[in-house]
Amino acid sequence: MENKKHSNKKYPRKRKHSKKVHFYQPKRRKLEAENEIKELDKQLEKFYSIIQTVLYHSIRMLFQWNTAPENFEDFPLSQKTQRGLKDCNYVTFTSIQSKSILPALKGHNVWGKAKTGSGKTLAFVIPVLEKLYKEGWSKEFGVGAIILSPTAELAKQTYDVFNKVGRYHSFSIALVIGGGNKVKQEKERVGQISILICTPGRLVQHINENPDLRCDDLQMLGNCPMFTLYSPAVDSLDPIDT
Fold it and tell me: What letters, b where the CB count within 10 A reaches 16 and e where it falls short, cover 153-184?
């Protein structure tokens, strides 16, 4: 037998299929962890900021309601009322205002007396505006507040104060007094007015003759010369004397 000759041809070796190995990269992982921590810190910071703001205003509100305020800015009033007071340059309050506004804001019936020029009108204008604002009052609810005045002149003064201080509110305010031939015009609109400032005689006339005048949901009833604020939902009365 002939010996087989070995050829000099070289065949490539078969390579073994090796699995790819993913090496652990500590630096990259560390950076990712640091970024995650920073993002979490930002979210926590934002959350704590919101909590602090809520707590601050809550504590401030409690403080204002339970301590004697020093000026109108210290009263727990809506921004719309505060803007109206600021535009009218009302900064400090009188004795009747300091004693009556907070109880009225808390929902108490208030009766008080004070001399002319002591600020009685503003003392009941503010609680009326705030009450209707918190109730979200609109013309669909009918009349929300009635302020009685013995004379047309005093009713006009009250009407002016309501319009000046409540200029940023959306309430409709009407002056309903005797004199003139405006009864027919008033009948068409009086049932949709939020705040009525009126003399007793004209109010009685509308109650008797106007079926559109609804006072079923009346929130506040005020009397101008002898400072009185009455809420139908409250039975007690807090007398105030200055």
Answer: ebbeebbebbeebbeebebbbbbbbbeeeeee
Q: Which residue has the higher pLDDT, 185 or 120?
A: 120
Neighbours of 24 (CB within 10 A): 6
Which of the pair, 167 or 6, is modelled with greater confidence?
A: 167
Q: Any bridge partners for residue 110, and if so which?
A: 229, 238
Q: By percentage, how much of the chain surpasses pLDDT 90?
A: 18
181, 218, 223: which is closest to 200 by C-alpha?
Answer: 223
Using alpha carbons, select from 73, 188, 69, 192 the residue that is nearest to residue 139: 192
pLDDT at residue 104 tops 90: no
Structure tokens given for 150: 């013995």
Residue 202 class from Cβ within 10 Å (0-12 exposed, 13-18 middle, 19+ buried)?
Answer: buried
CA nearest neighbour of 139 among 233, 230, 213, 77: 213
- What is d(CA 138, CA 197) in angstroms, rounded to the nearest whole number? 17
Q: CA 199 to CA 153: how far, in whole Å?
A: 10
Q: Cα 119 to chain center, whole Å?
A: 24
What does the alpha-carbon distance between residue 68 and residue 58 come to, in Å, rounded to a whole number? 17
User: Phi then psi for 212, rounded to 5 degrees?
Assistant: -80, -10
Q: Under DSSP, is residue 242 helix (H, G, I), strand (E, B) or coil?
A: coil
Q: Is a pLDDT exceeding 70 seen at residue 163?
A: yes
